[in-house]
Amino acid sequence: MSIKNKIDSKRNFFEDVFEVVKLIPKGRVTSYGAIARYLGVASSARMVGWAMNASHTEKAVPAHRVVNSQGLLTGKHHFVPPSAMQKNLEKEGVKVVKDKVQDFEKKFWDPAKELL
DNA sequence: AGCTTGACTTTGA
DNA sequence: GTCAAAGCCAAGC
User: Fold this and answer.
1) Cα A28 to Cα A66: distance, rounded to the nearest angstrom
2) Which of A20, A23, A27, A112 is deepest in the core (most CB within 10 A)?
């Protein structure tokens, strides 16, 4: 049974986002829009980010692997400390310069395609 | 029940 | 290349 099936059953926004984010392979990143689209709410990328805000309760959620469409670490300010996000990414092999993921297109992981 | 806010995206100038 | 505006849906007040 795929994760998608589970999500389809629950339709719980936070859990949906959490599950998908947890599936992001190490050393890869994705965007809020990609997750939102995978969940079927493409236009509501903001909701994904917002759901991530609740990820603080779920420690297992690698929110640092989620960036915006430009590969920018827009959510780093929500980390403690903010620099933790970049640090975690670099530790996983993702180079980050000036809050931007290097080789974003290569590192990008689209659940709609990879997790199909 | 209605208004504001938000870790976004896309398009146009 | 940067800046501004609109679209979008859910939670909080």
Assistant:
1) 9
2) A20
* C1’ B4 / CA A46, Å: 15
Q: Which two tokens stand for residue A51?
A: 């759901």
Each residue's pLDDT tens digit, A11-66: 578 888 898 999 999 999 999 999 999 888 876 888 899 999 889 888 889 999 99
User: A3-107, which class in CATH?
Assistant: mainly alpha
What number of residues does chain A have? 116
- Asked if A104 and A66 touch (Cβ cutoff 8 Å), the reply is no
User: In the Cβ-directed half-sphere of A115, how many Cα atoms lie within 13 Å?
Assistant: 24
Decide: A94 and A101 in contact? Cβ < 8 Å.
Answer: yes
C1' of C11 to CA of A63 (Å): 20
CA A72 to C1' C5, whole Å: 21
Find and list the nucleotides of strand C having atoms within 7 Å of a protein beta carbon. Answer: 7-11
Which residues neighbour A11 within 8 Å (Cβ) at sequence distance 6 or greater? Answer: none
Domain boundaries along the sequence of chain A: 3-107
